[in-house]
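User: Please fill in residues for this 270-position structure.
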């Protein structure tokens, strides 16, 4: 359970969200993070449950900021379960808007796609290209100008996808069960595939969603052949996914005949 002070600060967050007071919301969120960054698991879990109740009450920008803090809490040891569905919804929205943004951008201008960034000037500038006089009038004869409000939604999705992706990457690293679940969600798979070419900065997502499919199965078993290291390493190798710690459990030593059978059915990797 949360103590009185943390519970009160969560109430303050809810009030700021209801009042649509973004500066107060962000200041309170920062205060909560500073108070709980080193919290033990029961407090972190209780706080994350309360924070996840806010996602449906927030506009995309504040939701993305909340997802970053929530992902950091998961990285510090909080249970990721309450965060899965809000992050998937926010990420899918952002990726779908990103894909539509890229199509709309190419329909009105020959300029390169803009670098994603959450700054207001970047988002507003991109939205004006889609809706205003900065594009190429009547390109392809289609006149695909967007209403400014719609253009702003797409530009915001393009800008915020990185924040949602960061939270999703953290959640995916924490649990094989979550990775298996999310890899089977068709909306997420389609959204990731639709942006893969235009958003190379989000490369972690497709790799994490495919992590269970990296090795082929033999009769329902995933078979890896581990050789002795060619030499001893004297440094720690950096990890792309630091929360995914591989482990091997030795259940039994195969008899020589069974070992020969498995060896005959595997081939060296490329």
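Assistant: Residues filled in for all 270 positions:
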């Amino acid at each position: 359970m949360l103590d009185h002070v943390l519970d009160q600060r969560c109430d303050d967050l809810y009030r700021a969200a209801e009042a649509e007071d973004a500066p107060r919301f962000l200041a309170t969120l920062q205060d909560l993070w500073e108070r709980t960054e080193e919290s033990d698991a029961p407090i972190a879990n209780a706080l994350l449950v309360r924070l996840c109740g806010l996602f449906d009450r927030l506009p995309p920008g504040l939701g993305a900021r909340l997802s970053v803090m929530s992902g950091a809490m998961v990285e510090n040891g909080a249970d990721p379960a309450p965060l899965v569905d809000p992050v998937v919804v926010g990420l899918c929205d952002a990726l779908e808007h990103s894909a539509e943004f890229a199509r709309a951008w190419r329909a009105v201008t020959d300029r390169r796609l803009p670098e994603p960034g959450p700054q207001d000037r970047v988002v507003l500038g991109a939205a004006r290209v889609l809706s205003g006089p900065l594009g190429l009038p009547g390109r392809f004869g289609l006149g695909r100008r967007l209403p400014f409000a719609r253009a702003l939604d797409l530009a915001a999705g393009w800008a915020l996808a990185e924040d949602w992706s960061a939270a999703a990457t953290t959640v995916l690293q924490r649990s094989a069960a979550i990775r298996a679940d999310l890899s089977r969600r068709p909306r997420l798979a389609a959204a990731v595939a639709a942006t893969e070419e235009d958003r190379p900065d989000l490369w972690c997502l497709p790799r994490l969603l495919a992590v269970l499919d990296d090795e082929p199965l033999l009769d329902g078993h995933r078979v890896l052949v581990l050789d002795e290291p060619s030499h001893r390493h004297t440094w720690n190798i950096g990890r792309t996914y630091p929360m995914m710690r591989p482990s091997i459990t030795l259940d039994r030593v195969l008899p020589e005949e069974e070992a020969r059978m498995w060896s005959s059915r595997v081939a060296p990797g490329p």
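For context: The chain has a mean pLDDT of 87.
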